[in-house]
Structure prediction request, 416 residues.
Amino acid sequence: MRRWYVILTLGLCATIVGAQEGGGPATGGSCVSCHLELDEPELREPAELFAGDVHNRGGLGCVLCHGGDAKAEEVDEAMDPDRGFRGAPAAGEIPVLCGSCHGDAAFIKRFDPNLPTDQWDQYRTSIHGMRLAEGDTKVATCISCHGVHGIMAASDPRSSVYPTQVVATCAGCHADSELMGGYGISADQVSRYRRSVHFLALTEGNDLSAPTCNDCHGSHGATPPGVDSISNVCGACHVMNMELFLASPHAEAFSAMELAACEACHGNHEVLLPNDDWLGVDEESVCGRCHERDDTGGEVALALRALMDRGAGVLLNARSKVDDAERAGMLMEDSAVALEEAHQELVTARTQVHLVSVAAVEEHTSAALEAAESALADAAEAREEIRFRRSGLLVALVFILLAIVALVLKIKQLER
Prediction:
């Protein structure tokens, strides 16, 4: 690998210097113009794709990767090995080839001052890079993820490494059961991730901060997280949950049993939206995987479930009563505030579940109950006001009808 790095670096430096000294422009040159006229799709399509390539837009042409002479009119001269022509690099050469430019800070800063230049160093530490160094050419390299001739900037929604496209890119290998079978890796991670709350937030909610493959596994330094690091990966986003878990009795127990903190309850790729049914010790609950009804953990799980069910039930009833009052034409602004307060307290209570403390959860469910009952009281007053108004309207209608009857009788009397 070191030998290839030196050879390719020297070749690229010579090409760049030659371009700067008039030896040939750092563009597609005659390479593109000739390949666009070829009938063979495998030779013409790369030139077509290169028109939108990020390297072409930066003025970097074919010779940087393939070598040769872009100014030559004759094919034999353009593709002469004596002029540095290398052709299509082998799979094992790709990271070194890309890294010879992308690892050169002075060179890269000419095009994008914010583009990192440590991708090659990271790749060498990744599971992909280490396997490649061992001679496995089936592993992912730069072009496996970024493409070849139609490479887009990572910030471009059309790019294969844009957040919404990453899972499809990784699926190119990791959903291939035959390829993954050779490594003893399951090929269902992608299908499971696509059922997760993270994928739904990313695709349906258009939340680009929602995690996809490279957010948890890394990109250039991709490494499968082990039991010790899964909690760190999840905790990078779910900070409060992680802090609560580490302060809970589960932290020491999970460590002793070598259980991954977050994964044990939430899973890894198919992370579903949690709900209160996970509490308790029945077959559908998460707590019931480890605890029985009559052990300490089971008793705590049942107590937590009871608190959450009561809080959620009162909030649901209060919301229904307030909605009825609003539909009847009453202004329920204060009730709306109380309902939101109750909702937020229940959200906090669900977060406190990670502490596995009945007292901590009860503190917030009690606050939720207080706010929800305040909204219920407002709704009850609104109902009374509605009854009063309806009663007053009925009385008024009776008086109006009596007045009309009296007026009719008076008119008849006058007529007589």
About this structure: The chain has four domains: 1-151, 153-176+184-218, 225-272, 296-389. The two ends are 122 Å apart (CA to CA). The chain is about 60% helix and 0% strand. Residues 358-415 form the longest helix (58 residues).
